[in-house]
Automatic annotation (TrEMBL):
Keywords carried by this UniProt record: Cell membrane, Membrane, Transferase, Transmembrane, Transmembrane helix
Compartments where located: Cell membrane
Keyword Magnesium part of the UniProt annotation: no
Transmembrane segments: 20-39, 65-85, 97-115, 127-146, 158-175, 187-205, 211-230, 242-260, 266-287, 321-338, 344-361
Signal peptide: none
Cross-referenced InterPro entries: Glycosyl_transferase_4
Topology in the lipid bilayer: Multi-pass membrane protein
Organism lineage: Bacteria, Thermotogati, Deinococcota, Deinococci, Deinococcales
Protein name as it appears in the record: Undecaprenyl-phosphate N-acetylglucosaminyl 1-phosphate transferase
CDD domains xref list: GT_WecA_like (cd06853)
Broad class of the protein's primary localization: membrane
């Protein structure tokens, strides 16, 4: 028993059978099951009312594909957070207003993303809303302190304050759009977001002042996994901008939640490495488009993304998703090593992530096999 407790401590679990750990586990399972079960009725309703992406030259779908998955993901995430809040397993009163600010900002971006999915809002308007959502976090105490970033000079307050605000806005808006631009092949963003959530969750669990971040990440990870069950190729529903905005914004915001002031800059190292895939993808796409003379790189979609390049080589959406999941996981391991997370916790995280991803992908493939058998002549339903 003592060895089991010692192993749990490597994961940042103070009491393996305590209310805190069990409530985090319940938060994860609530989000997973709720999102998984909620998506089918959402998909059916979305198709009925026309919330769907129509086939075109850029999209892989051959028939209308429901694009309201982001609403189901947000619902699952929100329900799990309510469950966690009701249990109150940990003292998070000090950051309650910050948690509410994250949820409010996420809700606004989910709404704007959903409207954009249906009516195509202008890039300038989307950027404005994202910047305002970032400001919402700043005024509630969630910000990057430039003077807390290691190896950089300490600046006077008159310079540090506006620079910190600018860095925070760039961080939030940048990651929000990075996740959005990565969403082009079935299963990629859902899997990458799940990997990022799990890595950041285990990393945050190593610090006593980041308990609220652990709860939010558990809920977001569960919602991502529940969605992925329906999105592994061929997908039955996509998350749209509503879902990618939710993942990008929430992951960026949670990385600032509950951190000590002296570590607020250094704490960005892990999410920066974990999110290296979408960040590098966005960087190379924007630079490439600007080099071609495109003035508005966010408003001119093309097929120069990493997932498009991998898809061209593999000719398989499934293999493309799995490859990018593994790349994200490798980035996550590097981030955990840089943060000094114990090796048993890193190994356990990798095993847990791989098992969860295999489980949902395997269940999706099995379901497709049963559907094909049911449609075959001479087969019973």
């Amino acid at each position: 028993m003592e060895s089991l407790k010692a192993l749990a401590a490597q994961f940042g679990i103070a009491d393996l059978f305590g209310r805190g750990f069990l409530s985090v586990l319940l938060t994860f399972l609530t989000a997973w099951v709720f999102t998984w079960r909620f998506i089918p009725p959402v998909r059916e309703f979305a198709i009925k009312v026309g919330w769907a992406d129509m086939p075109n030259a850029r999209r892989l779908n051959k028939e209308p594909l429901a694009n309201a998955g982001g609403l189901a993901i947000f619902a699952g995430f929100l329900v799990s957070v309510v469950v966690a809040w009701a249990l109150r397993p940990i003292v998070i009163e000090q950051v309650n207003i910050q948690v509410l600010a994250i949820l409010l900002g996420a809700a606004v971006l989910v709404l704007v993303g959903f409207i954009d999915d249906q009516y195509e809002l202008s890039p300038a308007f989307r950027l404005l809303v994202q910047a305002l959502a970032a400001v919402l976090l700043i005024v509630n105490g969630l910000r990057i302190d430039f003077n807390a970033i290691p190896f950089l000079p300490v600046l006077p307050h008159a310079v540090n304050a506006p620079l910190s605000v600018l860095l925070t806005i760039l961080w939030i808006v940048g990651l929000t759009n990075a996740m959005n631009l990565l969403d082009g092949v079935d299963g990629v963003v859902g899997g990458v977001a799940f990997v990022a959530c799990m890595v950041l969750l285990v990393t945050a669990a190593q610090f006593t002042d980041r308990a609220a971040a652990v709860v939010l990440l558990a809920g977001l990870a569960g919602a991502a996994l529940g969605y992925l069950r329906h999105n592994f190729n061929p997908s039955r529903i996509i998350m749209g901008d509503a879902g990618s905005n939710l993942f990008g914004y929430t992951l960026a915001a949670v990385s600032l939640l509950g951190t000590l002031k002296v570590s607020a800059g250094a704490s960005l190292l892990v999410p920066l490495l974990v999110m290296a895939l979408p960040i590098l993808d966005t960087t190379q796409v924007v630079i490439g488009r600007m080099a071609r003379g495109i003035r508005n790189p966010l408003g001119h979609p093309d097929k120069t993304h990493i997932h498009h390049r991998v898809l061209a080589r593999t000719s398989s959406a499934r293999r493309t998703a799995v490859i990018l999941w593994l790349v994200a996981l490798v980035c996550g391991v590097i981030g955990m090593l840089a943060q000094g997370v114990p090796l048993p916790a890193i190994v356990g995280t990798v095993v847990a992530v791989l098992l969860c991803l295999w489980f949902v992908a395997h269940r999706r493939v099995r379901a497709l096999g049963r559907e094909a058998a049911a449609r075959a002549p001479g087969q019973s339903g």
